[in-house]
């Protein structure tokens, strides 16, 4: 059985190498030296090059851009610091794969030229033979792990890959779902080859960070890895040839901390590269020359699209801002739940013995933690009536209740500002809003949560809520949960509160929305139906229609 499997694999290896020799598209796009340097420095390859245990892999080395840069560092260490790696150390340092023998030959001769002043020709024969492997990386077997994995995996449309090979890749790599490009398999295999303290740094299109076919890989990363660094290079020419893509560097490790350093379109200089390394190894660094340093701790969650606030997301938002009215302009209102100044005193059991008209059923953020309303029998004390703050004397039971807490209540800032009304809550309570249908949005999670309330509760502080005269609230819920709400809020609130998202009223009000009556009635009915469920995938399709999204925008939405 084992022999059969080995035969089948070697047959596939042959096919892959035949393909590698052909003129077919194989994703040959080579990385520019300054970008290679940034990745080698930021991922720690440069710092750890002379450490005994360092093992580097380049899974698709092309003409050797990464390996040449590493060889140059080895040479520099020798010339500047007189540190020479032993032959054994050197031989074990690197493994570089490619299916194209001509690429490998070019890479070998370039690396030889760099190292020939330090090692003899016979030594280099040994080193290059060990380093460069003419084989399909995705089919290769490994019995060791690696401390550093760097490269620029090929992106090849699946139609171009020989059928049997593609079938084998799909069989081996579970994250290669739907129309996943081959680079997804490179990510999966390389992540599995990382040692415990290992670091992976790839430059690649960023498409998978948002779209559907990247979901499996995102989920794998969310489960067992950590996104340390994301650098978008959208406006830049990161490659030797012009390629129409959105390149980005993703650096991934098994670190336990959840922070991601996000850099948009940096000015990549030597100082910048060193600075990035410092940021990643020293939490105290909080500015960077060459790009604004954004630290996020809410980026990677399950298989959700990663929203970085990068230029294509912002482009989409500005189109939506130009073409659609704000949520409030379409007839929806965003309110803030009532703050009391002392929930211990004002949030009470429904059976508390005070005048019934003063008790309004309340929901607090605590009861929304699970994403649904956990029923409760609490009420908020309403210290207002139609004329403003109540006359306490008219409510003797309430007066006696408040007198028990007189000192606490009078100690509040609001009571000091208005001593006559020392018993009032900070915010007004509106009984009619408690009985209105609304969407509750708690400001407690990094992910937008939208809960429908049929009119049972008055929201307490840390809950925002939306009422609407025009929009059906279930349909609105479907729209907000499709991902578009998260994109808006993320863009508007990314930088506040140390990278935590805040679903503040001011950001919610800026969300753009089509006018309800302008939406096709079939879509309205569908949205209303979906808004009763949690089916965000179906919602995305309809949302893409009502916002007339193009292909790029659909990907941002995670389609
Ligand atoms: C995007 S290029 C990157 C080259 C190099 N890493 C760089 O950045 O300059 C991708 C390379 O992957 C190679 N390649 C494609 N499929 C491969 C496979 N299954 N295993 C190994 N290499 C492969 C191609 O021949 C090509 O040279």
From TrEMBL:
Gene3D superfamilies: Vaccinia Virus protein VP39
UniProt KW Transferase keyword: yes
UniProt KW keywords: Methyltransferase, S-adenosyl-L-methionine, Transferase
Chain ranges of the Type II methyltransferase M.TaqI-like domain: 117-239
PROSITE patterns reported in the protein's UniProt record: N6_MTASE (PS00092)
Record-level Gene Ontology MF annotations: nucleic acid binding; site-specific DNA-methyltransferase (adenine-specific) activity
InterPro entries, alphabetized: DNA_methylase_N6_adenine_CS, MethylTrfase_TaqI-like_dom, N4_N6_ade-DNA_methylase, SAM-dependent_MTases_sf
One Pfam family cited in the UniProt record for this chain: Eco57I
Principal EC category: transferase
GO terms (BP aspect): DNA modification; methylation
Superkingdom assignment: Bacteria
Enzymatic reactions: a 2'-deoxyadenosine in DNA + S-adenosyl-L-methionine = an N(6)-methyl-2'-deoxyadenosine in DNA + S-adenosyl-L-homocysteine + H(+)
Keyword Transferase: yes
Enzyme Commission number(s) of this protein: 2.1.1.72
Protein name according to UniProt: site-specific DNA-methyltransferase (adenine-specific)
């Amino acid at each position: 059985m084992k022999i059969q499997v080995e035969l089948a694999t070697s047959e596939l290896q042959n096919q892959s190498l035949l393909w590698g020799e052909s003129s077919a598209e194989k994703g040959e796009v080579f990385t520019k030296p300054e970008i290679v340097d940034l990745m080698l420095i930021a991922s720690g390859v440069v710092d750890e090059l002379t450490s005994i245990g360092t093992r580097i892999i380049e899974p698709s080395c092309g003409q050797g851009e990464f390996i040449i840069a590493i060889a140059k560092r080895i040479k520099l260490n020798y010339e500047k610091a007189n540190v020479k790696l032993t032959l054994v150390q050197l031989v074990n340092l690197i493994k570089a794969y490619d299916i194209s023998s001509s690429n490998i030959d070019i890479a070998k001769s370039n690396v030889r030229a760099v190292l020939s002043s330090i090692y003899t020709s016979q030594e280099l024969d040994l080193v290059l033979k060990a380093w460069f492997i003419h084989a399909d990386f995705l089919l290769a077997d490994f019995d060791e792990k690696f401390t550093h994995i760097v490269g620029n995996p090929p992106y090849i449309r699946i139609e171009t890959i020989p059928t049997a090979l593609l079938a084998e890749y799909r069989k081996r790599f579970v994250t290669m779902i739907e129309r996943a490009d081959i680079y997804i398999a490179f990510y999966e295999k390389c992540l599995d080859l990382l040692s415990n303290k290992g670091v992976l740094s790839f430059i690649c299109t960023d498409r998978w960070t948002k779209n559907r076919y990247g979901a499996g890989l995102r989920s794998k990363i969310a489960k067992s890895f950590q996104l340390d660094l994301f650098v978008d290079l959208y406006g830049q020419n990161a490659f030797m040839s012009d390629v129409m893509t959105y390149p980005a560097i993703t650096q991934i490790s098994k670190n336990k901390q959840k922070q991601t350093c996000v850099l948009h379109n940096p000015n990549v200089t030597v100082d910048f590269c060193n600075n990035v390394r410092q940021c990643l190894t020293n939490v105290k660094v909080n500015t960077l020359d060459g790009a604004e340093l954004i630290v996020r701790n809410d980026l990677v969650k399950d298989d959700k699209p990663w929203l970085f606030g990068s230029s294509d997301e912002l482009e989409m938002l500005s189109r939506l801002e130009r073409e659609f009215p704000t949520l409030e302009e379409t007839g929806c209102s965003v309110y803030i739940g009532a703050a009391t100044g002392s929930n211990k005193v004002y949030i009470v059991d429904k059976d508390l013995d005070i005048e019934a008209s003063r008790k309004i059923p309340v929901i607090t953020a605590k009861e929304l933690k699970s994403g649904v309303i956990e029923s409760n029998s609490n009420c908020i004390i309403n210290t207002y009536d139609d004329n403003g703050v109540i006359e306490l004397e008219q409510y003797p039971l309430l007066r006696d209740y408040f007198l028990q807490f007189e000192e606490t209540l009078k100690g509040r800032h609001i009571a000091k500002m208005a001593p006559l009304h020392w018993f009032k809550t900070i915010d007004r309570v509106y009984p009619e809003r408690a009985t209105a249908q609304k969407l509750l949005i708690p400001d407690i999670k990094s992910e937008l949560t939208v809960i429908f309330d049929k009119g049972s509760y008055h929201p307490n502080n840390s809950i925002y809520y939306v009422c609407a005269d025009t929009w059906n609230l279930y349909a609105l819920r479907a729209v907000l949960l499709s991902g578009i709400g998260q994109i808006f809020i993320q863009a508007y609130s990314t930088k506040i509160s140390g990278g935590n998202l805040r679903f503040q009223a001011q950001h919610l009000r800026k969300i753009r929305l089509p006018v309800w009556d302008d939406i096709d009635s079939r879509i309205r009915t569908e949205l209303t139906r979906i808004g009763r469920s949690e089916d965000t995938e179906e919602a995305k399709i309809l949302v893409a229609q009502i916002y007339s999204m193009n292909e790029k925008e659909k990907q941002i939405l995670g389609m």
